Amino acid sequence: MVRFSELLDRLTGERLATVDTVLAAPAPLQPIDLTDDPQVAEVLDLAVRIGEVLLAAGTSAMDTAEQVQFIAATYGLARTDVDVTYNAIRLSAHRGPTLPPASTLRMVHYRSMDFTRLAAVDRLTRRIRREMVTPREAHEALTALTTAPHPYNRWIATLAWSSMAAMISVMLGGGVLVASVAFLTTTVIDRVNRVLNRIGLPFFFQQVMGGIIAAAPAATLYTFQDQLGVDIRPSQIIAAGVIVLLSGLSLVGSVQDAITGAPVTAAARFFEVVMMTGGIIAGVGISLKVTSLFGSTLPPTNVEITALAPMPVLVPAAAFASLSYALACYAERRALPAAWLGGAFGALVFALAAQTNIGPVVGSALAATVVGFAGGLMARRAFTPPLIVAVAGITPLLPGLSIYRGLYGLLDDEVVVGLSSLLAAFGIGCALAAGVTLGEWLARKVRRPRILRRTDTLRRPVVIRRPVRVRRRRPGPGGRMQNVPGPSGPGTP
Q1: What sections of the protein cross the membrane (predicted)?
Q2: How many angstroms from the chain centroid is the CA of residue 268?
Q3: Crossing angle, helix 203-223 and helix 176-198, to 10 degrees?
Q4: How far apart are CA 243 and CA 446, in angstroms?
Q5: What does the DSSP assignment read for 274-325?
Q6: How far apart are CA 310 and CA 269, in angstroms?
Q7: What pLDDT shows up at residue 454?
Q8: For a pLDDT cut of 70, what percent of the chain falls above it?
């Protein structure tokens, strides 16, 4: 117990990730000459480039705006207006009544779940906050981290995606055969989509291709299971592939934007999630229709309904699925234990909630709240943005099985079953994102580092008042006056 408490203290210590709470600088650390247009432009470009990395990684619009505003204020541009939308960051700085405002615009043309880059930007922001980093030095550091290669080979990320699919199939009650098929299917999906991405195919069609590949092996194996002498449930394989395809979408960011007051960005992100999910559904539907032309059949939806794995299997499988997702997104080593614990906590709460019959939506919300809260605390020790732990922790709980049931119900002329399953998937997804947002907010309010509680942002000089020793004079030998040490401290006359 002592060693466990020490490990927990290391993970939940009083260190705050920069994105957790960005406070206004009390005074510019590196004040620039506001009349010097090149210097002002350099600071504005630095701020929006940092915001670009954050927005591309799925950070909410409000958190991105606060980071951009803080960077500008650190260099003396305290009065700024920041507008963050789905794919653009606009920054305008007021330089005084006699100078025209300076502004810049940065378009975000990509989405990248690169957790190493996100953590590196977090550390750079920390350096700018606490050290005397000039804008030129900050620019060089930012360029170095954005152009740096991934920390490990691309094949490791492919194997991590495949391991994640295998663990999710185990969570859904699958055995060794189902996990192996899910592993190989996801490997093919990742490598094919990587080739399609290299030739510039839009991401929607990549999702369609992923859905086709996810469903074809499951339907084929089920058709020939008697000849092969195996017992297989296609839903476990297809749902694992659907969850892997859903995991890269910014569902958490879209709901966070809607909750925190950025409706335009929330609507754009949510529409993207809906479109990409539609691509997955279309791909699965195409695959099932094509395989049916060759005589492949799938079991009815009611036969496919299975219980989740028992808790001793569910919790470790979810933990390793979260770890695999963090590894697939190039997370640093220090973030992997936090992601593992986040997945374990979420699955444990979800399993306990399922035993109380409160429903999957409420259970998902409770589990996501625990994940967001634990992630906000653990990310401080790991010097990792809480977004990494939160997204990795809720990924195994995504409603891939409900999406498959809804799709197959619609294809099998079971409209009521299909629509109810798709609505359940929609409710679970929103509950997961809202729970993570609430958990992160609680983590920010419950525990803050002592230095921030004392000084708001920066370590300030501490004046130590030493006791003053008072010397008294009294007659000495021969009538001469001499100094005699007297009492000191409060109350000394």
Answers
A1: none
A2: 18
A3: 150
A4: 32
A5: HHHHHHHHHHHHHHHHHHHHTT-----HHHH--PPPPHHHHHHHHHHHHHHH
A6: 35
A7: 43
A8: 80
